C-alpha cells in the first residue's frame, strides 16, 4: 500500500478529515459501487441496450475497467485529454463527446486513433468534418464520427433537420471517415425533482 493510500485510510471516520484529504480524490463505497455497476449492466442486458458510461464523473481507469468488465461497450470522455489518459491506462473503446476542432487537437486525435481499435468523436459542423476528413485521409486511417445533434439543450450540436442530414451525408462521403451514428444530450430532460 502506498503512503497516500495509507494516509487516506487513516482519515476514515476521523472528524474533519475531509478537509485534509489530498484532491483530486475519488472516494466511493465499494459495495454500493459494485452493486450499481451490476444493476446497470443487468438492466441494459435485459433491455437489449448498449451502455457506454461517461468517465467525466469518475476520471478513473480502474472504475472504467470495472464498468467494461461488467458489460459496458466502452466509455465516453468529455475531452480529448481525458481520452488520452484513459487510453494510456488501457481503455480501448472511447467516444469523445465534444468536437475536437483545433489543428493541434485534430493531430492528437488522429495519433490516438492510430493506437485504439475503437475511437469515436463527434462533429456538429461541416468545417470540422472537412478538417477531420483531411487529417484522416493524410494518415489513411478511418476515423469514426457521430453527428452531434442539439435536441433542445442548445449547448452543442447541430439542429435536427436538413442541415443535420447534409452533415451526415458529408461525413458518409468522406473516404476516411465512418458515419458511426448520432449523439444527442438531453440533460434538460433529467427526472430530478429537487437538488436539495
SSE layout and pairing:
Blueprint: H1 3-11, H2 30-46, H3 61-69, E1 75-77, H4 80-88, E2 93-96, H5 103-115, E3 118-123, H6 126-139, E4 143-149, H7 162-173, E5 177-184
Parallel strand pairs: 1-2, 2-3, 3-4, 4-5
Helix pairs in contact: 5-6
SSE order: HHHEHEHEHEHE
Which spans of ≥5 residues are poorly predicted at pLDDT below 50?
none
- What fraction of residues sit in β-strands? 5-15%
Trace the largest sheet across and list its strands. Answer: 1-2-3-4-5
**Average pLDDT:** 92
Instruction: Count every helix, treating DSSP H or I runs of 4 or more residues as helices.
Output: 7
Distance between the termini: 37 Å
Helix proportion range: 40-55%
In the CATH hierarchy, the architecture of the domain at 98-196 is Alpha-Beta Barrel
Shape: globular
Total number of β-strand segments?
A: 5
- Quick one: CATH class of the domain at 98-196? Alpha Beta
Biggest sheet features: 5 strands, parallel
**CATH topology type of the domain at 98-196:** TIM Barrel
Structural class by sheet pairing and helices: alpha/beta
Radius of gyration: 19 Å
Keywords:
single chain, TIM Barrel, 7 helices, 5 strands
What's a quick, concise take on this entry?
The protein is an alpha/beta fold and 196 residues long.
Amino acid at each position: 500500500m502506498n503512503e497516500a493510500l495509507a494516509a487516506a485510510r487513516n482519515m476514515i471516520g476521523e472528524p474533519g478529515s475531509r478537509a485534509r484529504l489530498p484532491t483530486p480524490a475519488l472516494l466511493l463505497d465499494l459495495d454500493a459501487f459494485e452493486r450499481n455497476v451490476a444493476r446497470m449492466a443487468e438492466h441494459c442486458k435485459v433491455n437489449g441496450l448498449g451502455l457506454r458510461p461517461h468517465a467525466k464523473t469518475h476520471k478513473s481507469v480502474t472504475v472504467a475497467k470495472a464498468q467494461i468488465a461488467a458489460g459496458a461497450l466502452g466509455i465516453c470522455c468529455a475531452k480529448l485529454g481525458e481520452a488520452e489518459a484513459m487510453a494510456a491506462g488501457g481503455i480501448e473503446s472511447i467516444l469523445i463527446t465534444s468536437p475536437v476542432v483545433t489543428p493541434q487537437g485534430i493531430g492528437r486525435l488522429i495519433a490516438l486513433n492510430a493506437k485504439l481499435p475503437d475511437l469515436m468523436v463527434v462533429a456538429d459542423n461541416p468545417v470540422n468534418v472537412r478538417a477531420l476528413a483531411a487529417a484522416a485521409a493524410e494518415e489513411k486511417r478511418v476515423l469514426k464520427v457521430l453527428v452531434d445533434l442539439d435536441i433542445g439543450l442548445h449547448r452543442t450540436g447541430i439542429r435536427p433537420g436538413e442541415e443535420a442530414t447534409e452533415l451526415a451525408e458529408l461525413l458518409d462521403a468522406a473516404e476516411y471517415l465512418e458515419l458511426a451514428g448520432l449523439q444527442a444530450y438531453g440533460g434538460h430532460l433529467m427526472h430530478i425533482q429537487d437538488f436539495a
